[in-house]
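Annotated sample (chain length 316).
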Amino acid sequence: MKTIALIGCGRISKRHIEAIKDNPSLKIAIVCDILEERAKETAALLGCPYTTDFHTIKDVDVASILTPSGLHPRHAAEVAESTNVPNIIVEKPISLTLREAYELFDRADKAGKRILPVYQNRYNPLVAAIKELITSGKLGTIYQFICNVLWNRNDAYYAIDWHGTQELDGGVLYTQASHYVDMLHFFFGEVQDYKGFGGSLRNLETYDTVSAVCRFKNGVIGTLNATVNAFPTNYRTEITILAEKGVIRLSGTNLNEIEHWTVEGVEKPNLDFSIDHQYGKGHNTLYKYVAEERFEMFPSRDDVLSGIRLMERLSY
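Output written by the structure step:
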């Protein structure tokens, strides 16, 4: 039985709690939030103790950093240095700047701790299938992609004090679309050239809409569009891949449907699935890998740094 500390009891913590409860080999041992009432309520639901100071947490196998985005690198580094927790899960994005990401990994290395970045879309069955198809060479040369993240975050969402701020949110590429930036690296490797435009159409400190054109080192060219201004709720995510031996289009609220499949010699897989919330089921798989100590299934440091490099350049 592996024990877990949840640090941050806000919006995303509910998804982590669901995923952990789905695995009988995992147990939430303690929760933490700077707001005592919120920590107390979460602890009461789980039947575990709580604290308002994560520096006091000890003797658990994993700490999950679920605090506001801009605080992730500081909190993860302090957990690495001030506690005896060996494994530190960090929700996306692990930082808002490349400098902070390098510093986090450096501090964790010196403390002898393992950073486990949350990019749960890698475990989406359709995303995993496309990755395998690309790696196998069955698509031949990849020519182009079109990726769209067309979501909604209403005014109530931005009424939360840190949402939409430069200091702690980072904008649509960080807080909403970072999984899809990571997916592009997962599929195509390192970006070589890029040009992007962003706008704060709702007068936030950060971009709520971004459009970018990218060329990867392997020659693949494509566009990424991300927004939180779809009306009245999340519309869809979608990616189209055009290759030498096929055309594939994934869509749905969380890339959970195959909308088009024409691949030479490869039948359309029966992998469409339904989801009951916007996050999908990737966190369940993530925690399964934690339980099994399959840490190699998390994205590599180079992948994470590459994605943050692109997000930073397009977002500031």
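Annotation: Residues 121-280 form a domain with the Dihydrodipicolinate Reductase; domain 2 fold (CATH 3.30.360.10).
Annotation: The radius of gyration is 19 Å.
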